[in-house]
Amino acid sequence: VQLQASGGGLVQDGGSLRLSCAASGSISGINYMDWYRQATGKQRELVARILTNGNTNYADSVKGRFTISMDNAKNAVYLQMNSLKPEDTAVYYCRAVGWNKWSPFNSWGQGTLVTVSS
């Protein structure tokens, strides 16, 4: 299963960006998809997660600013990021957890860089 993330870029403090990620390959079902981020010199952290039933959870640092959504038909996940802050600067990674006819999978995208300038 391959994931392709896009939508990163350079934005000013207070701006918005929308990240997209689509999963392809042999997919029988997806349990959930999420976004992680990793800033320079820091550990990768969970930003937001969405289950296929629509339930979501967010890191405290992004609650009220970021919204995760999913298109089950397209095996795609999105992250709408508003009111961006310089501390949101990081490489953002999407992930899909599910199964195909052979085994479960836990697949990561390649990462997309988000830079927020002050």
Could you characterize the architecture of this molecule?
The protein is 0% helix and 59% strand. By secondary structure, it is mainly beta. Strands 2, 4, 5, 6, 9, 10 and 11 form a 7-stranded mixed sheet that branches. The chain has a 4-stranded antiparallel sheet with strand order 1-3-8-7, with no helix packed on it. The termini are far apart.
- Compressed to H and E, one letter per element, the order equals EEEEEEEEEEE
Q: What is the CA–CA distance across the termini?
A: 37 Å
Low-confidence stretches are: none
Q: Which shape, going by the Cα principal axes?
A: elongated
**CA radius of gyration:** 14 Å
Largest sheet: 7 strands, mixed
Oligomer: single chain
The pLDDT mean sits at 97
Q: How many separate helices?
A: 0
Number of strands: 11
- Estimate percent helicity: under 10%
Estimate what percentage of residues fall within beta strands.
Answer: over 45%
The chain-level structural class is: mainly beta
Secondary structure: elements and pairs:
Blueprint: E1 2-6, E2 9-12, E3 17-24, E4 29-38, E5 45-51, E6 56-58, E7 66-71, E8 76-81, E9 90-99, E10 104-108, E11 112-117
Parallel strand pairs: 2-11
Antiparallel strand pairs: 1-3, 3-8, 4-5, 4-9, 5-6, 7-8, 9-10, 9-11
Summarize the structure.
By secondary structure, the chain is mostly beta strands.
